[in-house]
Structure formats: structure tokens, C-alpha cells
UniProtKB/TrEMBL annotation:
Name the record gives this protein: Phosphoserine phosphatase
InterPro entries on file: DUF7121
Keywords annotated in UniProt: Coiled coil
Coiled coil: 5-95, 129-208
Pfam families to which the protein is assigned, alphabetical: DUF7121
Length: 294
């Protein structure tokens, strides 16, 4: 019985250490799980914020695309009207008499084209080439002055001047359309780059969040496993302590019975002496009394 009790007590100490070990491992795994859960939640929140920012950029880009579409339609209609105004101006100019005959300008332009072609395609002496260069310069100056003079004379006509001013205004407006479209196109291109960068970063953050979630699951499972092992070890310890208590109690009862048996045997001997008339000591009498003989 003593050997069994010693074995059980040794085993009890071993199980106590096992219980403490499982508690420590469970708490460490749980701490790790909570750490990765916190990182995951922060990254998921960041992912949500980045997704909303990307949506806002995409909405802004789509809005600009619709605006630029409208501007292009307006620009197309504008240049169509401008073309009609130019056509009308040409018709008025062609029907307007002036001191400068347009045919003379056309003749000089034709002569200029001939000289430029000759200079480019014909083998000339240095002297001939210099003469042609001088003539080309003269014709360019005369044509430019003739056109300026004709334009100045034509502008004296009220209708031509008003139409010319209108065309200039419409041309300036057309340039504004072009500028607006160019600026919007650049902004759309910039937004596209920003959106692509944001989506790449979003994908990386989401991937990192997924990795942290996997670690959270891993350590949560480890914590649950250690907790289950802790419960089992705790139950084993409780059962073992019950067994130890039972053994100790049984041993105590056995010793008590053994002691009582010795007392009865001693008391029987003393009682026989008492009946035989032998003198007993006070201690002997106490033993007889304790054993129930007196």
C-alpha cells in the first residue's frame, strides 16, 4: 500500500507540472492569437478605408469621363458652327469688290510655288540659286503685304468686320474647349495611375490581413488544444488525488484497527491477572477502562 501511495504521489506531482505547462502554453498561444487578431482587424479597417478612397477616385474619374464626353460633343458642334461662319465669310469676301484683285495674289502664290520647287529639284549654279532666293523673299513679302492690305480693306465692310470678330471669338472659345479637354484628359490619366497604385496597395494590405488571420486561426487552435489538454490533466489530477485520499484514509483506518486490536489483547491479559487477584497499576486499570473491561 505504501509503495502504491508513493507512486501515486510521484505521478500527482508530474500531472501538476503538466497542468501548469498546459496553462502556460494555452495562455501564450491565446496571447499570440489576440496579437494577430488585432493586426488583422487593423488591416481590415485599413482595407475598408482604402477601398472607399479607391471608390471615390473611380467615381471622380467616371464623372470626368462624362464631362469630357459632353465637352467633346460641344466642341464638335462648336467647330461645325465655326466652319459655317468661315464659309459665310469666304462667300462675302469673294463677292466683295476691292482695289486688290485676289487673282493677282493667287498668281504670285503660284509663281512662288514654282520657284520653291525649282530650288528643291533643279541643279543650279550659285548665282542662279541666289537669284531664286531673292525672288522667293520678294514674292513672300509682296503676298503677305497684299493679303494684309486686302484684309484691311475688306474689314472696312461692316458685315465682314462683324463676322470676322465673331469668328475670332468663336476660335478663342474653341481653344478654351481644347484646353479644358486636355486638362481633363491629363487629370483622368493621373487618376488612373493613382487608382492602379491604390488597388495594388489594397491588394497587398488585404493579403497581409489574410496572412494574419491564418496565424490567428493557427494560434487559436493551439490554445484550444492546450486548454483541452489542461482540462484532461486537471481531471486526471482530481481523480488521482481522490485515489490518494482513499489510500491514506484506508491506511489510517487499518492502523486504528491494528492499535485497537493490540489494546484488546493487552487488556485481556491484564483482566486475567485482575481476576487472578494480581495487583494492577493505575496505568493497567486505565487500559482496562479504555478497552471496556471496567
Amino acid at each position: 500500500m505504501t509503495d502504491l501511495l508513493e507512486d501515486f504521489e510521484t505521478k500527482r506531482e508530474s500531472i501538476r507540472e503538466e497542468v501548469e505547462s498546459h496553462i502556460k502554453k494555452r495562455d501564450e498561444a491565446n496571447a499570440q492569437a489576440q496579437k494577430y487578431a488585432k493586426i488583422r482587424d487593423e488591416l481590415n479597417q485599413k482595407t475598408h478605408e482604402m477601398r472607399e478612397q479607391a471608390k471615390a477616385k473611380i467615381a471622380e474619374k467616371n464623372d470626368l469621363i462624362e464631362k469630357i464626353k459632353t465637352l467633346r460633343e460641344e466642341k464638335e458642334e462648336h467647330y461645325k458652327n465655326l466652319s459655317e461662319l468661315k464659309k459665310k465669310l469666304r462667300e462675302i469676301k469673294s463677292g466683295e469688290a476691292s482695289g486688290l484683285d485676289i487673282k493677282d495674289i493667287k498668281a504670285k502664290e503660284k509663281e512662288l510655288q514654282y520657284l520653291e520647287k525649282r530650288q528643291q529639284t533643279t541643279e543650279l549654279t550659285k548665282e542662279e540659286e541666289n537669284k531664286i532666293i531673292v525672288e522667293i523673299r520678294r514674292l513672300n513679302n509682296e503676298i503677305r503685304k497684299a493679303k494684309a492690305n486686302r484684309e484691311e480693306e475688306l474689314l472696312k465692310n461692316k458685315d465682314i468686320k462683324e463676322l470676322t470678330d465673331k469668328i475670332n471669338e468663336e476660335r478663342a472659345l474653341g481653344e478654351q474647349y481644347k484646353k479644358q479637354i486636355e486638362e481633363m484628359s491629363e487629370k483622368i490619366s493621373k487618376l488612373s495611375d493613382e487608382i492602379n497604385t491604390m488597388l495594388q496597395e489594397l491588394d497587398e494590405v488585404r493579403h497581409t490581413a489574410d496572412e494574419n488571420h491564418e496565424l490567428f486561426v493557427k494560434y487559436s487552435q493551439e490554445s484550444e488544444k492546450e486548454h483541452a489538454a489542461f482540462i484532461k490533466a486537471k481531471n486526471d489530477l482530481r481523480d488521482l488525488e481522490k485515489a490518494i485520499y482513499a489510500i491514506k484514509n484506508k491506511t489510517k483506518v487499518s492502523k486504528k484497527k491494528e492499535k485497537e486490536s493490540e489494546l484488546q489483547e493487552k487488556a485481556s491479559e491484564l483482566y486475567e491477572k485482575f481476576k487472578a487477584g494480581e495487583q494492577l497499576t493505575t496505568e493497567d486499570l486505565l487500559i482496562l477502562q479504555k478497552a471496556g473491561f471496567l
